[in-house]
Amino acid sequence: MKHSYFIYQNNPLFIHITYFTLISFAGYAALKVLKPREKLDTITDLDLLFTSVSASTVSSMATVEMEDFSNTQLYMLTILMLVGGEVFTSILGLYFMKIKLHTRGSDNRRGYSVYDIESVSSTNSGPNITHAIELPVPMSELHLEEKNQYELKAIECLGYALLVYLLVTNLGSSLSIYLYLILVPDAQGVLKRKGIGFVIFSVFTGISSVANCGFTPVNENMIIFQKNTILLLLIIPQVLAGNTLFAPCLRFMLWSFKKITRKEEYNFILEHSETIGYKHVMSSRECAYLMTTVIGFITMQTILFCSLEWSSEALQEMDSYQKIVGALFQSVNARHAGESIIDLSSLSAVVLVLYTVMMYLPGYTSCLPKYDEQHPRAEKKDRRKRRLENLIFSQLSYLAIFVMLICITEREAMTTDPLNFNVFSILFEVVSAYGNVGFSVGYSCKRQLIYDVRCKDASYGFVGKWSDKGKIILIIVMVFGRLKMFNMKGGRAWKLR
């Protein structure tokens, strides 16, 4: 039980940092060993590490073109996106919750009092379960160990449901894309010209969409499929199910399992979501507010996009139906996924500012008036400390610091190439990395004031033209953005978590 005690006592933030560090460096080592599609000397070790961190944190920021990677390297990136996605990491979180329950039970058997154990429960696992469980026997007549066993069974049932959700979403998304490719000759021709297999494209894109990473195996992302409206409509629910609407979809699955299996544990999970302590299990009221907010954001973005970009050069080859679907696809991806059907640098400043705001907002942002309820045993000193931390260490202050640091590292390029290296482009890139989205305005040789004959336009993001110091800072931003849930406490109506 020593390893359980170690995990139980450590802060979840430390566990997450360790996890993402390990898989990122493991992915870097694998990408280093595996051979690229062609013998290229342009991919540096820092670019490989950057790509590995980008895939594991599902950020899809790129410093190299995706078609430079071989199929084996693409499968490695697929694994990184899978194990770095929110659904998979939340399953690991449930594993640690089970360890806490086992530890609590062993502590009880060693003679701890009920008051001591309930204090640990209130500080580590949310509200005490003794106030919520509905059993045939009154809770007052149950021993603490029996209560822990019931909570453990509920968490195990939730783990099974999450595993099914993970398999259904990823396999279903990959299969739907594959079926579309073999049924539509036009889409087949695009991949055949690039020498990319249907299977690798389907699996890679499907898992990337569910994980909300935004990587695709082609350099142009989804631009080459902007007229394939059915493919775009297939990917949209995959993106939503993997992030912003994960909680409502999970609640629907738990409700279905309750009807099918008739297990009381599923009913307990649905009726006492706060007791479980798993943030993706929300009440029906919270899910309703979340779905309303998500749909509202998507509708607002789609209307604004169509109003301002309907006659733009980027959409001139598309008909009206394709433009509407493309605007919807772009709006859904602006929150977290980062897949794009157009060159973002061609969009108007208003749309780019809107996307910057959307990328900043966490996935579960919703207009839900809710007061922060403190546990009665919480000390006043701890509450003052929380309020002070929320005031000083805000997310916007972190972003401002990162932008200033990158402006320092790229100050020479900002002087010689101001049209590409401007403050807004850097801010857009930083917010995209922080939000783990992957949108980028890119770099254009045409915008250079002093034209460089050696300059070559590339499909990777703006960060690909940064210095090594700037890339390292953005690596930190991607990891920080993936862990932002640990600094989202607040008491406003707009709850960020």
Automatic annotation (TrEMBL):
Q: Name one GO cellular component term.
A: plasma membrane
Q: Name one Pfam family in it.
A: TrkH
Q: Please state what the protein is called.
A: Uncharacterized protein
Q: Where in the cell is it found?
A: Membrane
Q: What is its main location?
A: membrane
Species of the source = Eleusine coracana subsp. coracana
What UniProt keywords are attached to this protein's entry?
Answer: Ion transport, Membrane, Transmembrane, Transmembrane helix, Transport
Database matches in InterPro entries:
Cat_transpt (IPR003445), TrkH_K-transport (IPR051143)
What is the membrane topology listed in the Swiss-Prot or TrEMBL record?
Multi-pass membrane protein
Q: What highest taxon heads this organism's lineage?
A: Eukaryota
Gene Ontology biological-process entries: inorganic cation transmembrane transport; metal ion transport
